[in-house]
Amino acid sequence: MRAFGLLASMAVVLASVACSTGDGDTSSTESTEPGHPAESTQAAPPAPPAPATAVTDFRNVKIFDGHSDRLSAPSNVRVKGNRIQRISTERCPTSRGPR
Description:
Layout lengths: L1 H18 L35 E7 L13 E6 L2 E6 L11
Antiparallel strand pairs: 1-2, 2-3
């Protein structure tokens, strides 16, 4: 009976050694699943430059702040991309881009 336990232990040790890829390195450059390509070792191409963010000015708008039951005095609002950049009762300065 004792020999059977020793034999079972040896089988487990040998099975674990056979499953390893050597030197403890478990990474592989080849795909182990059919239909899935191996991981590329090349660096990904650089991302394209981000498009210029659009700036939109709204003039003489009345703003509801969500708290008061009244609208604001006529205001000017600048939106850059999808975010409000500035709210003012004064005219928003024009942005001069490269010509």
